[in-house]
Design brief:
alpha/beta, 8-stranded mixed sheet, 239 residues
Length: 239
């Protein structure tokens, strides 16, 4: 599959991350089949999208009217309907290995063709999730950072059986919808961003525990020094 082959997105999950990812695709011209298990969840997700669109409009960040963007989103609770025309699937359900495995088995059962399958997991092993899939080489992580409608980073992480093509096309697709997509060479617990974040947090809390500085002082020191420098060049380039 090539990037140009992707026209319709199936977005599974209408919660905090799922609604924002679906909206990101719709804002960038993609038709989105918006799938969840209940009408209540779908309605809640659509309401969150409308609130996000108001925020974007108030900040003069939109080039289309809200109705045009929302017309690209097609809500359903039916896997077969959501998948019959989909070219790429992304899932943002609860961070539970067995739940995610069950979702992806349903995807393969209802998809009429081979498609790239991406999970928005923030730390579960893609190798573990892809076990038992008919086409594990098509499975990859596309980890959006929260809030997904605002944070630019998406970590693209392969499992042991993921093909180079799936990584490449996913990275290209994330870039096309305005994200800064970074491909990781191999999976690890917490991927990369979370590992760095937790390492910094551990040391920050240790400093507070030792009575060296208050929490407010530690936050200010990071915000007005390393936070700004690292946002421009990153810690390795800075060093």
């Amino acid at each position: 599959m090539k990037l140009d082959d992707i026209k319709i997105i199936c977005n599974i999950g209408a919660g905090t991350m799922g609604h924002a990812i679906a909206l990101q695709f719709a804002m960038n011209g993609y038709q989105v089949n918006f799938l969840d298990t209940s009408e209540y969840a779908l309605t809640s997700g659509l309401d969150k999208m409308k609130a996000d669109l108001k925020t974007f409009r108030d900040a003069n960040m939109l080039h289309e009217d809200d109705a045009t963007i929302l017309s690209r989103i097609h809500a359903t609770t039916d896997y077969a309907v959501a998948l019959e025309s989909a070219d790429f699937v992304i899932e943002s359900v609860v961070e539970d290995l067995e739940v995610k495995r069950g979702v992806w088995q349903k995807v393969e059962e209802n998809s009429p063709k081979e498609i790239i399958m991406a999970t928005n997991s923030s730390g579960l092993s893609p190798s573990a999730i892809q076990e038992g899939l008919k086409n594990p080489s098509n499975f990859v992580v596309a980890h959006f950072w929260n809030p997904a409608q605002l944070m630019p980073l998406v970590e693209v992480v392969p499992g042991n059986q993921t093909s180079d093509e799936a990584v490449q096309v996913t990275q290209e697709l994330m870039s096309k919808i305005g994200k800064h997509a970074v491909a990781i060479k191999k999976e690890s617990l917490g991927f990369v961003g979370n590992r760095i974040q937790l390492a910094v947090l551990r040391e920050a809390l240790h400093i507070v525990d030792e009575g060296i500085a208050t929490p407010e002082a530690v936050d200010d020191i990071i915000k007005y020094s390393l936070g700004r420098r690292w946002s421009l060049v990153g810690p390795i380039a800075s060093a």
